[in-house]
Amino acid sequence: MNKKILFTLPLLITLVLFGYFFWALTKPGRDPKILPSVLIDKPAPEFNLTALENLGVPGFSRADLTSNGKVSIVNIFASWCVPCLAEHPDMVKLGKRNDINLYGINYRDKPKDALNWLKRNGNPYHRVGRDPKSRTGIDWGVYGVPETFIVDATGTIRYKHVGPLNPGDLENTILPIINNLQAQN
Amino acid sequence: MRGLFLFAAVLLIFTANSNSVKAFEPDEILDDPALEARAREISKEVRCLVCQNEPIDSSNADLAKELRIVVRERLVAGDSDDDVKSYLSARYGDFVLFRPPFNTATFLLWFGPLLVFGVGGIGLIFFYRGNKNLKVAKPLSPEEEARFNQFLDEDKKTKSSNSGETS
């Protein structure tokens, strides 16, 4: 009797492992392309980005994340980035709010292209900084565009979203996190 | 004919080689050959985050190119190979390195196989021990032997009496 249990043990362990792998590989929302950010709950990196000329909003640096006591949304975008257009309406919604900062990092873009894109689709950002060589992007761990960071009033990165905000992401994820951080202040 | 084959083989090797270093652009090369060699070695172990299964050394992605330049800048600034790698993993996580470092999160990754073999080995030892116990029976005690002989004798008697009846 004892021996029978011992013999079935390897089979049982294998089945449990298979079950776990199957679950892990097929669970909804799994996307191997999305990497967890190592910067969550870490201070935002130092940077200083120049403004996009003729746009009418200033550039920004790390100091602008902590200067006014507001939660900041930092959105990485580019004119060549098609999914950026898809999440643009969400950015417009966020840009209308006065109780948060909406900052845009223009990633690996030509100034003329970026300006045309923002003129055509409307500029939702309170500040836009140019990152033509993606150096600031690398410091933020950016590897795909668009990416959206939520930074609290002390300059600590609290959340990162890779890829465009899909329908429901703003209401179900982004806004609750903003509310939470504002409540903590 | 043989010459043609040789020519084709050489051509094949040549094109295969040029493919594998295609992404590498001449304007990135450092003047110092020793630093450049280190940069190439590091670049082969850094994952391109855009293509994911390709090292930045052979990737054509813009981000890979920029990371190759960053690697070289860090080396010129006097960083050691490990410094450069930790610079990158501080921004992109351990995933950026093809060879996972040893830490609490990767402990099972490194020792998992050893653990499986260990458990299996222990299982095997128990299995063979158990079998041996089955095969090697204990010798009979004097009383048991006496009873055993008694049974044998009775068996013989019945057999001989049976055979007497039939014949």
| CATH architecture tag of chain A | 3-Layer(aba) Sandwich
Identify the CATH class of chain A. Alpha Beta
Structural class of chain A: alpha/beta
Quickly name the level 1 CATH class of the largest domain in chain B: Mainly Alpha
Order of SSEs of chain A, N→C?
Answer: HEEHEHEHEHEEH
Average residue-wise pLDDT of chain B = 82
Number of domains of chain A: 1
Percent of residues in helices of chain A: 40-55%
Counting DSSP H or I runs of 4 or more residues, the number of helices of chain A is: 6
* Range of strand content of chain A: 15-25%
Greatest interface by residues involved: A-B, 21 and 18 residues
- Given as residue ranges, the uncertain stretches of chain B (5+ residues, pLDDT < 50) are 17-21
Q: How does this model look, in words?
A:
- The complex is a heterodimer of chains A (185) and B (167).
- Chain A has helices at residues 2-26, 63-66, 82-95, 111-121, 135-139, 169-184; strands at 48-51, 60-61, 71-77, 100-107, 127-131, 147-151, 157-162.
- By secondary structure, chain A is of the alpha/beta class.
- Chain A has one domain (38-184): Glutaredoxin (3-Layer(aba) Sandwich), CATH 3.40.30.
- Chain A has a seven-stranded mixed β-sheet with strand order 2-1-5-4-3-6-7.
- In chain A, strand 1 (48-51) and strand 2 form a beta hairpin.
- The longest helix of chain A has 25 residues, at 2-26.
- Chain A is elongated, with a radius of gyration of 21 Å.
- The model of chain A has no long low-confidence stretch (mean pLDDT 93).
- The radius of gyration of chain B is 37 Å and the shape is elongated.
- In chain B, helix 2 (33-44) packs across helix 3.
- With 167 residues, chain B is mostly helical.
- Chain B has three domains: 2-96, Orthogonal Bundle (Helicase, Ruva Protein, domain 3), CATH 1.10.8.640; 104-136; 137-167.
- The longest helix of chain B has 29 residues, at 107-135.
- Chain B has helices at 2-20, 33-44, 62-76, 81-92, 107-135, 142-166.
- Chain B contains six helices and no strands.
- Chain A binds chain B through residues 3, 6, 9-10, 32-33, 35-39, 108, 133-135, 138-141, 143-144, and chain B through 49-50, 52, 62-63, 66-67, 70, 89-93, 95, 120, 123, 126, 130.
- Chain B: This is Cytochrome c-type biogenesis protein.
- Chain B: Possible subunit of a heme lyase.
- Chain B: Keywords: Heme, Iron, Membrane, Metal-binding, Signal, Transmembrane, Transmembrane helix.
- Chain B: Residues 1-23 form the signal peptide.
- Chain B: The chain crosses the membrane at residues 107-128.
- Chain A: Keywords: Cytochrome c-type biogenesis, Disulfide bond, Membrane, Redox-active center, Transmembrane, Transmembrane helix.
